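Subject: Predicted fold for AKA14 protein, 133 residues

User T.R. writes:
Posting the sequence so we have a shared reference for the thread.
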Amino acid sequence: TKHVIKNILWTTAKNFTVERGRQQIEELISTWDIHESWLHHSEFLEEEELKDSKRYHYRACWGIPTRRKPIPQATASVYFVIVISKFKPDTTPVEVFYRLESSRLIRRPEQCQFREKWLKDIIENKIACTERL
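User M.O. replies:
I've generated the structure tokens; pasting them so everyone works from the same file.
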């Protein structure tokens, strides 16, 4: 069976605001197949002005709080960049990329389905690293 990659309809460059970007990232996250025990918060980090584009950086920080440990032992971050081209018409949808905190691999939501395992791997590695210390 073929995996269906879920994506959302991204706003156009002319309708983009920092808050709209955060809301759309939340909308994208809601399409991900992640167990309900995972909680996250998302935040805007910075705006970056480049020669050919403007980039808006966001972060979603993930963890699994429990009754015994309401503050998770470790968290995993996913970093998002929303790119608005200075050369394309402002009716063009924004471009969106994301990467995991432990990786340099940049992914596009329309090309790659997010996997819960990636978050688990980051947290397990962090816990193993702190236990070694």
